[in-house]
Protein: Complex 1 LYR protein domain-containing protein
Organism: Tuber magnatum
Amino acid sequence: MKRSGIQRDVLALYKLCLREAGKKPTEVQNNFRNYARASFRAHLDVNQRDFATIEHLLRVGRRKLEVYSQPGIKNISR
């Protein structure tokens, strides 16, 4: 199945979020994974052709990931 560039970007961000969750302490890794899943699921209703919204959500997601991947962040909840 061929994916568009923006679909690949979304999947890459999701994979990166899950990878970063694996770097957190074992007892809180599920919290980070659940947060990532919930964040992506919250926007499932966005139209696939609404590129401006998707690009905005990607930028916001990357910024959040940058903050949450810092070593000082030990836990997360939704």
The longest helix spans residues 51-68.
